[in-house]
Description:
Elements: E1 2-6, E2 10-14, H1 18-29, E3 33-37, H2 41-49, E4 54-56, H3 63-70, E5 76-81, H4 86-95, E6 96-104, H5 116-121, E7 126-129, H6 138-147, E8 155-160, H7 164-173, E9 178-182
Amino acid sequence: MFVHFLSAQAEQIEARGPVGLGAVVNARFRGSHVIVAETVPYRVERARELGAAHIIDPKAPDAAAQIKELTGGCGVDLALDCAGDVAAQRLCIDGVRRKGQVAFVGECGDDLPVRVSPDLLRKGITIIGVWHYNLNDYPKIMKVIQGSPVIDRLIGHILPMRRIQDAFELSATHQTAKIILHPWE
């Protein structure tokens, strides 16, 4: 799933699974207009339920053009890749506006071709990588968890710990959001 965020800013999210869906919850909580790029039908529907304004197919040859059209030709202010996929990362770079920001959260073992002049210098974008959140951000995260009216929709399944194998198998189908395991059941 790829989320492009818009508020006074536009945000774009490419996110696969619970991390990307969590990004939608966070972006909506902050008042952003969210554009999501996703292909898995379950996650497309869940992103809509969480407040995504637009959902595009990231595999469409005109995906970046669709993002530009949705943002009045400018591109999004912030783009976030949670998928860890080179095509998704490239869409973040192509879909962000001049002087916009791109954050890569999803791990990817493949090389991303970045063209220094057209991507960075001429466009003036900022790219950051984030593997985990800073503990100093914990109060802000808790504020979203406590205050978001859709946070419960981020949870797709609740299972007892004894069904952990079922949880792994369910996760592999991509037909779930966050899976919660109860350790004492």
